[in-house]
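quick one, 264 residues, struct below
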Amino acid sequence: MKVENKRVLAVGAHPDDVEFMCSGTLKLMKDKGWDVHIGVIANGNCGSMVDSPEEITRIRRHEAINAAKLLEAEFYPLGELDFGISFDDQIKAKVTELIRMVDPIVVFTHPHEDYMCDHEVTSMLVQMACFGAPIPNYFTNATMPSPRTYKIPYLYYWSPLDGKDIYGNFVPQSIHVNISNVISFKADLLACHKSQRDWLLEQHGIDAYIEMMKSTARLYGENCGFEYAEGYRQHLGNAYPKENILKEVLGKIVKENKKHSKEV
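---
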């Protein structure tokens, strides 16, 4: 498999989504010489019980920038509002412009079914943007538009939070990445999002923020023989690349379960 470039883009609905769900894999790719890019569609303005929307937006942007710096990643906030992510022409164009600007060969995002609508719509937006980015007659109307990409990137959906669907059932993944050696680094990335960690500390009396991440990683690790793992499904539908590039890049720390590799 020929790797045309070494750029990876992870797109989350909110600040901290990427760190929660795929930052272990991003760190492992970074250590292999990949350039890491993080896009966030909404600004996190609903992520506090006490701060105003303006104040928590400022806080969460600062936290996201600090996490990106720790990962040595580029950070791109798209500035939409929480619960305002919709599958409309304006936001589709924004996300497509992000794909074109970064021109990644690998993209990560939310699964199509998750516990909240912002995540699910983000998944649809990223899927559409990956498909639309190479199409010359799709215009984003940006002030200085980026050129179209050469091809559709490899697209991966990370697991739902807690590894469960909206009915509380476990959701198996077809690809697992062993993140046991970088789980502490992943916890450090999440700890950059202090506002969210403190909120859960106050509400639950324990460091549920970090422990929730670890419990999900432990759950998928147990499912494939690793201590901690991040689980993914690859978009294998028409026109999308079919090879599992993660296996090519990361080698033996990636396990595939063909039983759950149904096309999405």
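The beta strands are 7-12, 35-42, 74-80, 106-109, 154-158, 175-178, 229-234, 254-256.
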